[in-house]
Amino acid sequence: MNSQKPASPLDRFLRLFTDVNGGEGTGALLLALNVFLLLTAYYFIKVVRDSLIVVESSPEVKSYAAAAIAMLLLFAVPLYGQLANRLPRRKLINRVTLFFVACLVIFYVLGTAGVRLGVPFFLWAGVFNLMVIAQFWAFANDLYTNEEGERLFPLVQFGASLGAVLGSVAVGRMIEPLGLYLPMLGAAALLLLGLAVTAVVDRRERLRTESDRPLVASTLTNPAATGEFRLATGEFQDLREALREALDRAEAAEKAGEPPPELPQVEFQTVGSVPAAAGTGAFPLVFRTRYLLLIAVFVLVINWVNTTGGYILDKVALGAAQAAVAAGETQLTVGEFMATFYADFFTVVNVLGLLLQLFVVSRIIKYIGVRVAVMILPVIAIGVYSLIAIVPTLVAVRWAKTIENGTDYSLQNTVRNILFLPLTREQKYKAKQVIDAFFWRAGDMMSAALIFAGTTWLSMRTIHFAMVNI
């Protein structure tokens, strides 16, 4: 790995927001641009998705459709794992992204032809947003050491926060004059631009960290999912090789009567001291590794709570929209009212997330650490749903969810991605898809089960769902 370079003016400027060493600023900003394009595209899709499903169906159907996505991911995630076993990371990213671009074009054609897309598009978008974003963060994790990632991920996540803000603002301005379907093509174009940036980042970082490796052993040709992990120096080392060396050193120390040396961060990557076999399926990787399983359960519970909160917001907002249209207080249809409401809501949420990302997140990670930072969102959620249970009005629900989501999209997203830095490349590309896609949607499934039981058998109202979240 190259020695540290002198700090450029860009590096020194970025130190206002996080710790940036010499030569790191350009690479981090390129990654931030990459995820900026991805999140802008995602918010184009998100607003259209939420508007179509609520208008053509109901908030309850939206919750049930979200649960169905988890079933789709049972097939999609293992397929992705097989691709990661065979393709280098750049080819993997290209093929997966181009597949989703083609789907967007097809949905645009069907939508403009008058086909009802609410449920199919919601299901597709639910798979898209989780798999593509998880793929990006697996790629980002593949580029940095633990120490580099903890310093630079807050800056990279800023690109995601900025993309979310501009995406929600732009799509909100597009819907009324251009309709609900044109943003699909805009999202496709942004994804293609993102692929170009990915190619630049991949080449740049490969030259930075792999200049001493033969081409046939580099990430350009090796599959994305390998048993290698990054050492603190930045070089890759195979996990099994690292374990053998560590055990040899421990045996030598025991013979010499010396204390055993520390094992190289394998407690995160293995069960005990046994690494998973090469080519292990995506789901077994998670279930056989305690560290990954704990992350998975945490993600499931956090999203269960957040999705139930989203249902509460949908229900209250739809009631307000129907009342406003019936009273003649707006010239918009219920669908347009909901679309503009969501666009404004996401804009405020993302501005809050942007400010937190820019000025707060890196300092929290630096001064109190990842272990404490990961628990901040659960504490905020307890306060948020306590407020909703007491004051279940649209204003209260909207601003309570704004605080929760703003924290989730900034601090929580950054910390959750940092948790994968110590892992092997196979765990980053395959297990991250399981956790960020399937377990995330499993939280939706649990929420859907709660909503079904609550609305069908238990006559639960808004305050009751808020109390369950607490």
Structural account:
The protein is an all-alpha fold. The protein has 2 domains: 389 residues, Growth Hormone, Chain: A (Up-down Bundle); 45 residues, no CATH class. It contains 16 helices and 4 strands. The protein has a two-stranded antiparallel ribbon. Strand 3 and strand 4 form a beta hairpin. The longest helix has 37 residues. The radius of gyration is 23 Å and the shape is globular. The chain starts with 8 loop residues before the first helix and ends with a helix. The mean pLDDT is 86.
Nutshell version of this structure?
This protein has 16 helices and 4 strands. It is mainly α. The chain has 2 domains: about 15-215 and about 280-470, Up-down Bundle (Growth Hormone, Chain: A); about 230-275, no CATH class.
Q: Which CATH-level-2 architecture of the largest domain?
A: Up-down Bundle
* Beginning-to-end CA distance, first to last residue: 48 Å
**The CATH topology of the largest domain is what?**
Growth Hormone, Chain: A
Low-pLDDT regions = none
Main-sheet strand order equals 1-2
Descriptive keywords:
470 residues; Growth Hormone, Chain: A; two-stranded antiparallel sheet
